[in-house]
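Action item from last week, closing it out:
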Amino acid sequence: MKVRANGIDIHYEVSGSGPWLTLSHSLCCDVSMWQPQLAALEKRFTVLRFDTRGHGGTDAPAGAYTFDQLADDVLGLLDALQVERTHFCGLSMGGMIGQHLALKAPQRIDRLVLADTTSRMPAEAQPLWAERIRIAQEQGMAAHVQPTLERWFTAPYRAAHPEVMERIGSLICSTPPAGYVGCAHAIAGIDITGRLSAIQAPTLVIVGRDDVGTPPAMSEAMAAAIPGARLEIISEASHLSSIEQADAFNRLLLDFLTE
């Protein structure tokens, strides 16, 4: 399904029943990233998944995106679906959107889950992002598949689950370069740790112990900055902890959302 919001067509899917829970995916993924969570969540929640601007079935306009813009996309979607208030779980880029949403529209967010994400990209990471943008523009997304999978999953998991590598690799490869570049500009510039003390929503921060993309220290900084936030570290998981350790991730998510 699609709605027109904030100047673009946004693809979304709704399933389950109960209080609203909105899921926001990583860079280079789409709504299908959350497949390992659905069976557990749909019994308790009306689950809203959406493709972020530049991804999946959502429009991918050219140019640099901002997190204000990406948050406004979500608010436009919630307005179109007449969702007044929702739990929100975002992973990586989705967690960055979640932080901005919780600051921009606190009355819309019930409980907030920030997984494998950060509130600040350090200065030393800027050349990395500039290079990733260049590769996407000059070589296309296929060049990003292997290095991204190596950052997102531990070596033992990659070896044991070639079918997952194929599925996630195809998502990376099919991401529109314009969407990747637009979102990468936003990610590279994030720096809101100093604002996190204003977040009012009860917050759970989750991170894979082996996450090299957004290491546990980044989650520790967020949890320390958000009043009352809880930090949970999942062992034997890298960046896409929701896939690599789905059962552990789901337990943490459900326990927090239903307590």
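Closing note: The first helix runs from residue 35 to 42.
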